[in-house]
Prior knowledge:
mainly alpha
Amino acid sequence: MSQRNTGVTPQVVNAHACPVREVLDRVSGKWSVQILVAAAHGPIRFTELERGIEGISRRMLTLTLRNLERDGLVTRTVHPTVPPKVEYELTPVARELHETLLRLTGWAERNRVFIAESRAAYDLEHDRELTDA
């Protein structure tokens, strides 16, 4: 971005983008998205999340849930039973985010073939450029 054309300095861009980037990094993370999708249908227990999210470690699930709770996206309810029953549920803000994730995944599904074809055409063109050089 040219400073002389826009008058916008990198410091101004970073000052505005940094808080947004932090939120997007949190909610778009691999585990966060899967937890949000899994919890979208109502309260879900820790063990159900652990079994339902392939590849997540117990520690990573704990950390991600704690961060989502801290961000106000998940509520944690401890029921006074023996052993304690802990459930996680999306907050209204997270339900709105889930709707956005559904739109994004719908877009990805509708355009995946186009993107794959575009990649193939790009790679073919750029492979020719490399072999012609």
